[in-house]
Design brief:
Blueprint (H helix, E strand, L loop, with lengths): L1 E4 L9 H16 L3 E4 L13 H12 L5 E5 L5 E4 L11 H13 L3 E4 L3 H13 L15 H8 L4 H4 L3 E4 L6 E6 L3 E6 L7 E3 L7 H11 L4 E5 L6 H10 L6 E5 L2 E2 L15 H7 L3 H10 L13 H7 L10 E2 L2 H14 L2 H15 L9 H9 L8 H9 L6 H4 L11 H13 L8 H10 L6 H13 L7 H8 L1 H15 L1
Parallel strand pairs: 1-2, 2-3, 10-11, 12-13
Antiparallel strand pairs: 3-4, 5-6, 6-9, 7-8
Helix pairs in contact: 1-11, 7-8, 10-12, 13-14, 13-15, 17-19, 17-21, 18-20, 19-20
The structure holds one RNA strand of 75 nucleotides.
RNA sequence: GGCCUCAUCGUCUAACGGUUAGGACAGCAGGUUCUCAUCCUGCAAAUCGGGGUUCGAUUCCCCGUGGGGCUGCCA
């Protein structure tokens, strides 16, 4: 099956766009078809330089690489590949013109010379009369001779700055079966005479979509629900041009907490933002796939491969879904913990080494990485979480004493006395988390666990939060741990 | 306003017309090794309202209500 993703290069890659791109990608892969990328650059005023490259990079980050159309080559340059091009709509103007003319010739479209000012006024009137703003078909009343005269008038503002509108049959009922929503019907008289070709010679989305998706042989169009209202226009165009429309699946919109269409105002809607924050691509893909879709089982974690296998439009929700950052973060944690520990260590090593060069020559780095893997959310937190190992801790009485653990400053000498005694008895060979645990737990004396463990851990790390006391002691090694213990004793006495 | 569309815990969602309406996130309460985190256990939490159809509606139909989208020579 051929599916496609046709963004307009007017900015960053929106998470909602990534979601529809993902669905298109999943189904093309599931059916061993192809996924193509087309650029809808028909609005020249909103073009943003670099947007195409940015979007392709965002898709690639998520693991979505187009099979055809606009893509990135090995050097990161934007190229076009495929037999159905060009894939930039701005390079297909002659095509749109040709079909627009055909529609005029067939009587399904007409020239309109109304100025933007007149249209604005017309709409204002209609709204004042509580009517639906629709083109009043003033130019449809023009005779053929009048149209010819205007077109050949030599007055460029009239002959060139005019548009071609579709002539929607008011009496017609347009019906369709959407892959997600089922049967739908629209009454012709509620559909506006949409502009197909603009005054600047560029097509509007509607014409371009129909022409391109026919010529590019798209089998299935998965797009946002915001296009549902325009569907009858597209259906009419396919019919008039004598083409079979593709299958359509209108997916529900992504909503913000206030249930409005997710937009810039709602914070992070740019995929780029999530990349910078350190979210894993697997997490974004997993999260987006689960928004509005479910596998029918209780499985929550999905790889791209599993999604390709299991995704189906039948199980896509009809109602909009709120983008919940908390669930995103939960998924991030799940995926961080799924990374094999060796790989995890390899991924955090560069950032840790940047701050603590010693990490590069640390033979036990993987062991340390393992200690923080279950409590980390983003890779960039790693240096801070491991600093206790690479630099001497700043220990204070305030840190060592802890009310909740029933440790008072006055008790500290006694506590450290006990700790020193216990740990001195632990041999180099027994110096493992397990061995130290056995020693400490077996010699608590009159202390509660927390009364020994909190000061121990705090003395060793200088931190209120860190991996457990025994693990830290093992990681540090007997010599260093005893040194830090001694340093702490010096501070409290 | 008009048109289109949607409706189960706070959120994402499950449930051949028959279930004590299930799971997950978040929340709360416990537990494991002191903290943080993980993990485990438990608790709380929903079928928008009204009519039908039916022996029986979350499920089918109608009407409300509420939400969303569109209503551009934007996409």
């Amino acid at each position: 099956m051929r599916t496609r993703f046709p963004p307009s290069p007017t900015g960053f890659l929106h998470v909602g766009s990534l979601r529809t791109a993902l669905m298109n990608h999943l189904l093309s892969k599931q059916t061993k078809g192809s996924f193509l990328m087309r650029i809808e650059d028909t609005d020249r005023e909103r073009l943003v330089p670099g947007a195409v490259e940015n979007m392709l990079k965002g898709l690639a980050w998520a693991g979505i690489i187009p099979d055809e159309g606009v893509m990135l080559d090995k050097n990161g340059e934007v190229i076009q590949k495929g037999t159905h091009g060009p894939y930039f709509q701005s390079e297909r103007l002659d095509l749109y013109r040709k079909y627009a003319d055909e529609l005029v010739a067939k009587g399904h479209a007409y020239h309109c010379f109304c100025t933007p000012e007149r249209l604005a006024e017309m709409r204002k009137d209609q709204e004042a009369r509580k009517q639906a703003p629709m083109y009043d078909r003033l130019c449809l009343k023009l005779s053929k001779a009048e149209v010819e005269a205007k077109l050949g008038s030599g007055d460029a503002t009239v002959s060139e700055r005019h548009v071609i509108r579709m002539k929607v049959p008011h009496e017609k009922t347009i019906t369709f079966n959407d892959d997600i929503r089922g049967d739908m019907r629209f009454q012709g008289h509620t559909v506006d005479d949409q502009v197909l070709l603009k005054g600047d010679g560029f097509p509007t989305y509607h014409l371009a979509h129909v022409v391109d998706d026919h010529l590019m042989e798209t089998d299935l169009v998965i797009r946002g629900e915001e296009w549902l209202s325009s569907l009858p226009k597209h259906l009419l165009l396919f019919e008039w041009l004598g083409w079979t429309p593709p299958r359509y699946a209108h997916v529900p919109l992504l909503l913000s907490k206030d249930r409005k269409k997710l937009s810039k105002r709602d914070g992070d809607v740019a995929v780029e933002e999530y990349i910078t924050k350190g979210y894993l691509p697997e997490v974004m893909v997993n999260f987006l796939a689960l928004l509005g879709w479910n596998p029918g089982t209780t499985q929550e974690l999905f790889t791209m491969e599993e999604l390709i296998e299991q995704f189906s439009l039948e199980r896509v929700q009809k109602a909009g879904a709120i983008f919940d950052p908390e669930k995103l973060d939960w998924l991030q944690g799940q995926w961080m913990r799924k990374i094999p520990v060796k790989e995890f260590a390899a991924r955090i090593l560069p950032t840790v080494a940047e701050k603590f060069p010693a990490a590069n020559s640390d033979h036990d780095f993987t062991k340390k990485a393992a200690l923080i893997q279950e409590r980390i959310t983003f890779f960039h937190e790693a240096p801070e979480m491991l600093k206790w190992f690479y630099e001497e801790p700043h220990v204070s009485v305030e840190l060592l004493a802890n009310e909740k653990q029933k440790v008072t400053a006055a008790q500290l000498p006694e506590i450290f006395d006990a700790l020193t005694k216990i740990l001195t008895d632990v041999s180099e060979k027994e110096w493992t988390a397990e061995g130290i645990k056995t020693a400490v737990m077996g010699n608590l004396g009159s202390f509660k666990q927390g009364q020994l463990l909190w000061p121990l851990r705090a003395a060793l790390t200088g931190l209120p939060y860190s991996p457990g006391a025994f693990e830290v002691a093992e990681a540090l090694g007997r010599e260093k741990a005893m040194e830090r213990l001694k340093a702490a004793v010096a501070i409290i006495s």
